[in-house]
Design a protein that fits this description.
Blueprint lengths: L15 E2 L16 E2 L2 E2 H8 L3 E5 H16 L5 E6 L6 H10 L2 E4 L2 H9 L7 E3 L6 H9 L3 E4 L2 H14 L3 E8 L12 E2 L4 H11 L3 E7 L9 H22 L5 E3 L17 H4 L3 H13 L10 E4 L3 H4 L3 E12 L5 E5 L17 E2 L6 E8 L8 E8 L7 E4 L19 E6 L2 E6 L4 H4 L11
Parallel strand pairs: 4-20, 5-6, 5-13, 6-7, 7-8, 8-9, 9-10, 9-11, 11-12, 12-13, 15-17
Antiparallel strand pairs: 1-17, 2-3, 4-14, 14-15, 14-19, 16-19, 17-18, 20-21
Bound molecules: pyridoxal-5'-phosphate.
């Protein structure tokens, strides 16, 4: 008697050999078996998977290159690293070793900088919500504070009164530069609010405006936005200098410089669209150099890059937990890393490289994160060669925002290692259950 076989719907799977697609975008078949000189397999075996890996030399080189690009065009240019992008102590510390100042947007970040021995005078304090105590600390320690709103201005005037001195401040401005415009922060230029704010601050007799700050958005790959912002600052400075006698000590162009990650809605890969540091600097600096100041009286120029510095030097090693065939016929794979540690999948179409030789016969694959949540999709379609449970994938350029915005949800967050000059350092241990529950308590009566 012949056994009755279960009917399985046949699927035709298109396998392609890994070449550029028609937009020049390489499929994810390029194996990345080694990271900063180490076998990916070895790193995962020793430090676990998932695992963030920082290439220290690359981070240093990025800082140096960006500084060179701006300083050669504007001698008083300086980088204040945007802490929020990745405030791991080792990352900030390496950048401070290179000479970076700190740009912080909360008392918590301010404290991290102070704990790393950053002098108060090398901290720029931004953001829409700063508490009274945080402001007092910042002014006492000589930090630059950029005012976001009138409530904050009033609070700072009270502090000036209490400290019995005139406090030097910066004013955050915004302009109609992008669509939708970033109007949440600071005072709008076109509506006249920025002028009113400067006038109001000067008129108080307690504040002296010495800085102008703008941060026009994030991942700005259109340099014309920076040229408009820079020209806007120059025109505004010219006006408030003439009308109100303001003399700036600094102007601050904020962050927003793009990194080599491709946006979800982009047609071309970031390698083809992302401006270089030199292109950003060439757009901004000559405009500011034409500002209303004499040669020996140029305001300092701050830039506050985040993702442009730290995105690329960090990669994520992750393992395949499962693969499945979806009803559509497409292949799906489930990874041990989810959007809890890769929040930037909202914006980025990450590359997934294989961490071992898996061949070049790729197939369109849905890449799922390991969270038990339907929305945890890391990429709707990526060209991936055959992989099995336990195989490794490497996701390059994950250093910005993913770690600082990671959420602890059903899994423990992974370790972060830094590789430098042939040495490996664990700069963040993998979380433990005890660590996650450290501040919890079960009162006796609930037991
Ligand atoms: C005030 C300010 N400066 C700098 C940055 C860094 O931005 P990016 O990572 O796009 O360079 C941010 C990020 O939102 C910011 O709010």
């Amino acid at each position: 008697m012949t056994e009755k076989r279960i009917y399985t719907k046949p699927t035709i799977i298109r396998h392609t050999v890994g070449v550029m697609n028609k937009y020049g975008r390489p499929p994810a078949t390029v194996p990345m078996n080694r990271l900063v000189g180490y076998e990916v397999k070895e790193l995962a075996a020793k430090y676990g998977s998932p695992l963030f890996v920082l290439n220290v030399q690359e981070l240093r080189e990025k800082y140096r290159d960006m500084t060179r690009a701006f300083k050669t065009r504007y001698p008083k240019a300086h980088i204040a690293y945007s802490y929020k992008t990745n405030y791991m102590k080792a990352v900030c510390s390496i950048l401070h070793q290179e000479g970076a100042w700190a740009e912080v947007v909360s008392g918590f970040e301010y404290d991290i900088a102070k704990n790393l021995n950053v002098d108060g005078t090398k901290i720029i304090f931004n953001g829409p919500y700063k508490t009274r105590d945080e402001l007092i600390r910042a002014f006492t320690e000589g930090s630059m504070v950029n005012i976001d709103n009138y409530d904050e201005m009033q609070l700072i005037e009270d502090i000036a009164e209490e400290m019995d001195k005139v406090l030097e401040v910066g004013i955050r401005v915004n302009m109609d530069l992008n669509n939708p415009p970033w109007h949440k922060f600071g005072f709008n230029m076109e509506a006249g609010h920025a002028f009113e704010a400067v006038k109001r601050a000067q008129a108080s007799g307690k504040l002296k405006v010495v800085g102008l700050h703008i941060h026009a958005g994030t991942y700005i790959d259109d340099v014309s936005i920076y040229s408009k912002a820079a020209q806007g600052l120059v025109d505004f400075y010219t006006y408030i200098k003439a009308q109100l006698g303001v003399n700036l000590k600094y102007w601050d162009m904020g962050g927003g410089y793009a990194s080599h990650n491709t946006l979800n809605w982009a047609w071309a890969p970031a390698e083809q669209t992302c401006p270089t540091y030199d292109q950003y600097a060439e757009t901004i600096c000559p405009i500011l150099m034409n500002g209303p100041f004499s040669a020996n009286n140029a305001p300092k120029l701050f830039i506050e890059p985040g993702r442009a510095l730290v995105d690329e030097p960090i990669s994520l090693i992750t393992s395949v937990a499962a693969q499945k065939r979806l009803p559509s016929g497409a292949r799906g794979i489930v990874l041990d890393a989810g959007m809890n540690i890769l929040s930037s999948v909202q914006w980025y179409s990450y590359n997934f490289q294989t961490g071992q030789d898996s061949g070049f016969m790729v197939e369109d694959t849905v890449i799922y994160g390991g969270l038990c949540m339907n929305i945890d999709v890391l990429r709707q379609s990526a060209s991936v060669p055959p992989v099995r449970r336990g195989d490794l994938l490497v996701i390059p350029h994950v250093g910005a925002y993913n770690i600082s915005q990671s959420w602890q949800f059903i899994y423990l967050r992974p370790a972060v290692i830094a590789i430098d000059g042939g040495e490996i350092h664990v700069i963040k241990k993998a979380e433990t259950r005890e660590y996650v529950q450290e501040f919890e308590d079960v009162p006796d009566k609930f037991k």
